[in-house]
Amino acid sequence: MEASRPKTRLGKLDLTRNIEIRPAQPRDAAAIATLLVESFAEYQPLYTAGGYAATAITSEQVEERIRQGPVWVALSDEMVVGTVSVVARSGSLYVRGMAVRPTARGRHIGELLLAQVEKFANAARLRRLFLSTTPFLGRAIRLYERLGFHRTDEEPHELYGTPLFTMEKTLSEEL
């Protein structure tokens, strides 16, 4: 008997099947903090101690982010496999704390999370998204570029000694 095949979308595997994006709740803070540690662990040697601590934040810091602005989680079989948070700054939307669990990478979860961010920005009539990233997060940088982000000279250029650069995306005026 042949194993069942995943559903396809236009002849391609639908890797986002069974992924749910929803607003994070304070009860999700520990799972998000664990996800951040797991997602950035392989890069920890490339960060300064302070830069890593500011990236792989604690559950208390996650709870504070939830109070500051929207945080979303991506769920697969009720497990948190991705997250992103945003905060409005100077008429733009700052994207921060985006991560996908290493075992869930390649399923387009980052794209789904950023689509949620764009939907939120459009509803709030914010026309610019921006984020800071490190030059060694190649997979994330390629995702951002594929989705229309480009590098700017905007600060910050470091996070506790870890090099950073800023990327931005201008959103369409059409709603």
Largest sheet: 7 strands, mixed
Give the tally of β-strands: 11
Rg, Cα atoms, Å? 16 Å
Classification by helices and strands = alpha+beta
The H-and-E topology, N to C, reads as EEEHHHEEEHEHEEEE
Number of DSSP helical runs: 5
**Unreliable sequence segments:** 1-14
Mean pLDDT over all positions: 90
Task: Note the beta-strand portion.
Answer: 25-35%
DSSP helix fraction: 25-40%
Number of domains: 1
CATH fold group: Aminopeptidase
| Shape designation | globular
CATH class: Alpha Beta
CATH architecture: 3-Layer(aba) Sandwich
First-last Cα distance: 49 Å
The named CATH superfamily:
Gcn5-related N-acetyltransferase (GNAT)
Q: Within the largest sheet, what's the order of strands?
A: 3-4-5-6-7-11-8
